[in-house]
Amino acid sequence: MLRFLILFSLLIHSCVAPPKTKAAAGTLPAKKWLTLSGKEPAVVARGGFSGLFPESSATANDLAISSSSPDLTMLCNLQLTKDGAGFCLSDIRLDNSTTISTFFPKGQKTYKVYGQNLKGWFALDYSADTIFSNVSLVQNIFSRPSIFDGQMAIAAVEDVLDTKPPKFWLSVQYDAFYMEHKLSPAEYIRSLRFNGINVISSPEIGFLKSIGKDARRAKTKLIFEFKDPEANEPTTNKKYSEILLNLAAIKVFATGIIVPKDYIWPIDSAKYLKPPTTVVTDAHKAGLEIYASGFVNDMLTSYNYSYDPSAEYLQFVDNGQFSVDGFISDFPPTASQAISCFAHQKRDTPKIGKTLVITHNGASGDYPGCTDLAYQKAVDDGADVIDCSVQMTKDGMAFCLDSADLIPTTTAATTLMTRATSVPEIQSKNGIFSFDLTWAEIQSLKPQIQSPFLAADGFPRNPKNKNAGKFMTLADFLKFSKAKAVTGVLINIQATSKKGLGIVDAVKSALTSSKLDKKVLIQSDDSSVLDSFKAAPQYTRVLSIDKEIGDAPKPTIEEIKKHADAVNVLRSSLVTISQSFATGKTKVVEAMHKGNISVYVSVLRNEYLSITFDYFSDPTVELATFIAGNGVDGVITEFPATATRYLRSPCSDLYRELPFAILPAKAGTLVSVASKEAQPPASAPNPPLDAKDVIDPPLPPVANLATNNASGGDPPASLRSGTIATTANLSLSLMAMLALGLLLCAGA
To answer: Which domains, ranges and CATH numbers included, belong to the chain?
Structure first.
């Protein structure tokens, strides 16, 4: 236990925001809230920071207090042992969240709970001494860290109260069940004299009425909890949907209600938001507070939120129509930052600091990349720099698309599989390449959103708009950028420049013709491409480093400076990762900055699957880690709205004295809380970047496409991608057949 206290104190010191005093709040303008009281919504931590550590463990509770708003409310779900001791755990069955089945393998029993037969290990079959002396906690949600399993003790209610959390909320879910087995939650609470208990909630009307007199005397709020609308409330045997119709009746015995978040903002079968219900305004009219439950960072909710958990919280408190009075969350720091840092933020609020928000194919997390819609969304979201990865067509048209292979980003696989070819110098698998098609042929296709976590994890992006938008030529992109409120553009020139397609010349010509009077970044992984822009010192040249590195020695820095003013590096080149834990910080930014080289980091995404546990499954904490923690000069992101919102917030300025701050995570501290045996194996350090890896051979001569364009013939043999695949790659053929089948089914 002492070891855990020491390690945990290290974690708190280095990785999360220390609690601030209420007096510090005076440095921010007062916000007007549409809550019942007019005060800011409450943050209620379900089992402490249960999104990271086992529920209601001392570690989860301490981290919740240290990383959240000063007025945090700690929620404990009450369970009772055979001898009437109370402890904190949500599920009445212990086998999913503790090690009890290991100690008592034959202890499984079946009980009827609210009309359903439940099988498992139940607390009421064991004494307090047995539970507290033998059983430890485990994480019961598989997407969360398991390395802390079996190392943290079950928390008695008294233990949590002794830590004196800012506020304490006791949830009593199973009063009728325990009463049936001669255990009384009400008597247990009376034995505590209600001391330190600010709120008591229950889905059972009878229980709340039974303690009403004592609660009023103790000035403890009573909250009625709604369950599934079709479930029956145990006391009245009425459906919760029926009880919801008469909120005035609830006001007789409770001061507020809890509802699952879908009661307020329903979600349709396609996972898009429906219009809101009137439950919040109805509750407020009845004089009831209303709390929303079910908030987590690590679950797909609605596509409207673009995988950004803060956006979901804001939907409930900053929609201009109503605000809930509080959230019940497994990730209380995220709820805290939404309320304290992001609510009521105006679109024209200037960003703090000089960090650039640079897009990756526009706002490609919301729309197909490099389309007019993706670029417009990026502008609307406040991006500083929008990007175009330049590709060439067979007839010499320069346009924007993530790669020369059209299969991932267009519908080419459904109609043009016979044009699949092999180009080993670009990629190992077959593709349908832009330089084998005319611009007219490409325009006949539809764009296709890229969902990097769809195939393996089933997480698509914005399916409703997966084929929305139009492709943009480079000339149109520059015209668009000139007319919009962006700081500049990033032009990315990829490996196809080696095929003699004349992309460099096309970019130079387009930039000259556009007369763009904004910042221009020219990016490439090829030093010879960057060297071709040396004569244009007004352009910032960016070397893209597509492999993991851990340092940049002085000779490497000197070589980079010959070709570039900035580098674009992978996230894992700044913070090393092992099994979704941040294990170390490299010297890359420090080394580059010493050489006066700017550092951009890529690619940032909102999906929690791409975010380490150290960042709380929250893209905002990842941004804070790279911007405030590593000092990068720009972030390259597919969700610019998330980055812009963070940089507009005063909470991004760590030098301001505020009641809450979004602090960067410190690599290695979280994983150190686990026992040595449970920690992931140490990975080899990233190698330093060698100077010779920066240098590339000269570009090949540009082929004459004009003759072929005029005649409509094929490009010269030197330009043609390998042998045309008369029998296309099997996997691509299967993909095409599947896509065609889906289209036919949709048409039927």
So the answer is: 41-93+157-342 (3.20.20.190), 356-685 (3.20.20.190)
